Amino acid sequence: MALPKLLLLLFVGGALSLTFFSGSAEAGEVGVCYGMMGDNLPQPPAVVQLLKQHGITMVRLYDADAGGLRALANTGIKVGVSLPNDNIPDAASSMSYAVRWVQSNVQAYPGTWIDSVAVGNEVFHQAPWLTHQLLPAMKNIQAALAGAGLGDAVKVVTPIALDALKVPSFPPSVGEFRDDIAWSVMRPMVDFLEQTGSYLTFNIYPYFAYKYDSHVDPDFAFFRPNNGQHDPGTGLTYFNLFDAMVDAVFHAVEKLGNSGEHTHGNGRTRRRVASLMRVPESGAPGGKGKTGVASNSKLDGSASTENAQAYNSNLIRKVLSGAGTPYNPDADISVYIFSLFNENLKPGDDDERNFGLFYPNGTQVYDVNFTRPGPGPGPGGPSWCVANAAVGDRRLQDALDYACGNGADCSGIQAGGWCFEPNTRVAHASYAFNDYYQRNGRSVQSCDFGGCGSVVYQQPSEFTSPSAS
Q1: Which of 319, 395, 417, 422 sees the fewest Cβ atoms within 10 Å?
Q2: What stretches of 371-416 show up as alpha helix (H) in DSSP?
Q3: Domain architecture of the chain: domains with CATH
Q4: Which pLDDT score, from 0 to 100, does residue 352 have?
Q5: What is the pLDDT of residue 26?
Q6: What is the pLDDT of residue 278?
């Protein structure tokens, strides 16, 4: 996990606008990072039962732990293994070492669904002296996998910290790789990912942006309703920092260019790999939680169960919905939540040890649902989400923008749309809230909107569209 120097240039637009998405992205997948830096953690067989109990279908290991790989055999759970930074020089300089590593850490577990090998972790940030050995190590591991007949089934990747960009977060349109790695490392690496059918892997942590930059709006960082941030380079409005960070990477890859480019229907030229991203780490610490703090208020401290639950729950819903990003609505994004457990031996401050979704005894730190939401009736049958007029037009507008910018189909309330009338803030907000609520499995959280929405169990007269009814 990186602690990058994040200097965010946040542009606050004066006018509010609705952002509409019409992308056709495939729904992504959500997994967890299974770290083992604790002296009180359950044994791997118990961990596997915990994963199954909560519908978690992907895990990422920070090494190739034999006990974990054996326990995950024949479970249907996808597993990512890692070659640690310390082993990169050997893998880069010796093909025979790469072959032995693949034999011992991949081929030795034929019943375990290993789908990726991460070569190193945040090398540019954690071990910059290995920078120019990284790609040779990736190529040797890929060649070893291909020699074992696993070249297509197991993808070679490397997790990268966001400080590989000159401007890590905002505005996304200025996203560009640092001069010391752009052409010497990143361009040939992206070529390699293209050629092998692999994908980008960047660790994305809005939490650290909020923690270290006082200008970052917590609602923007943690997926809560907000009035958005405007990117003057593209004219797009962002309603969460995760999307902004991902799009900054997409912009950086586009600026590398090369023969792997192709033109999308929107006229933009983009490499194939710049529509595929797997985020090997993202999350927020919740082990030092505060209670009784309103969900839309600024918090005195950055680590809280409220922040962590809001961020992880909304990130999971976003990925499972296949919403893409404002700049790349058809992007295919999957995410691993950091992390499965609070790890009491992890170095660093208390935050580092309290990112866990579960305590070591297997109980949840806070409620998070990993399964794809589906329609489910509330008490007495179907339910709907309506706007609360008492909160005032300003808060309703912020929440309306959030719903439309995060997957709700708001075309019906545009000027000339079938549900534009009555042209009132509360009517438009109810329409958007309900569409978002229905698309997200009618979970209570998806109708909260910072207190602007509420669930009802009798159909309001204005909800007569096929998607809302």
Answers
A1: 422
A2: 393-405
A3: 30-60+159-258+271-289+298-358 (3.20.20.80), 384-463 (no CATH)
A4: 80
A5: 59
A6: 93
Crossing angle for the helix pair 187-196 and 241-256, nearest 10 degrees?
A: 100
Which contacts of 322-325 are long-range, i.e. CB under 8 A and separated by 24 or more positions? 322/25, 322/26, 322/27, 322/28, 323/21, 323/23, 323/25, 323/406, 323/407, 324/21, 324/23, 324/25, 325/243, 325/246, 325/247, 325/250
Residue 114 backbone dihedrals phi, psi, to 5 degrees: -85, 120
Task: Give CA 287 to chain center in angstroms.
Answer: 20
Task: For residue 195, give the nearest of 252, 135, 250 by alpha carbon.
Answer: 135
Measured between alpha carbons, how far is 397 from 429 in angstroms, rounded to an integer?
7
What per-residue confidence (pLDDT) applies to 17?
Answer: 25
**Residues present in the chain in total:** 469
- pLDDT score recorded for residue 384: 82
pTM here is 0.75
Q: How many CA atoms lie within 13 A of 462 on its CB side?
A: 22
pLDDT of residue 328: 87
- Helices 131-147, 187-196: inter-axial angle, 10-degree rounding: 10
* Cβ–Cβ under 8 Å, residues 81 and 105: yes
User: Can you list the residues of the chain whose pLDDT is less than 50?
Assistant: 2-25, 259-269, 289-300, 374-380, 464-469
CA 444 to chain centre: 22
Report d(CA 333, CA 175) in Å as an integer.
18
Secondary structure (3-state) at 4: coil
Reading the block at residue 65, the tokens are 């732990």
Do residues 121 and 84 lie in contact, with contact meaning Cβ atoms separated by under 8 Å? yes
Residues with active-site annotation: 122, 281
* 66 backbone dihedrals φ, ψ, rounded to 5°: -65, -40
DSSP-based three-state secondary structure for 214: coil
Q: What is the pLDDT of residue 372?
A: 60
Please tell me the number of Cα atoms within 13 Å of 456 on its side-chain side: 15
Q: What is the pLDDT of residue 299?
A: 40
User: By 3-state DSSP, what share of the chain in percent is helix, strand and coil, each rounded to 5?
Assistant: 40, 15, 50
| pLDDT score recorded for residue 261 | 45
